Amino acid sequence: MKEEGRDTIVNLNELELQNLRHLIGGHETCATKLDTYAQQCQDPQIKAMLQNHANSARQTKQQLMSFLG
């Protein structure tokens, strides 16, 4: 019984790792797209907003990466 529980924990950790990698990739994609949108934007307020959100996505990505070890 303990081995079954142990296997469940290992599988859960692997799933969490996959989910974490997925989140990291998603934040990287968001940051890249927001940077692209900001470069194309003419309105200075919207441009600044897009750049701020891109920076926030990069910061979140770094925080998530810290969980990888």
Task: Describe the protein's architecture and organization.
The protein contains two helices and no strands. It is mainly alpha-helical and 69 residues long. Mean pLDDT is 85; it is low at 1-12.
Mean pLDDT: 85
Helix content: over 70%
* Computed structural class: mainly alpha
Weakly predicted, low-confidence segments: 1-12
How far is the first residue's CA from the last residue's CA?
30 Å
Sketch the topology as an H/E string, one letter per element.
Answer: HH
Approximately what portion of the residues adopt beta-strand conformation?
under 5%
Shape: elongated
Question: What keywords describe this structure?
Answer:
69 residues; mainly alpha; 2 helices; disordered N terminus
Question: Quick recap of the structure?
Answer:
The protein is an all-alpha fold and 69 residues long.
Annotate the secondary structure layout.
Elements: H1 2-40, H2 44-66
Helix pairs in contact: 1-2
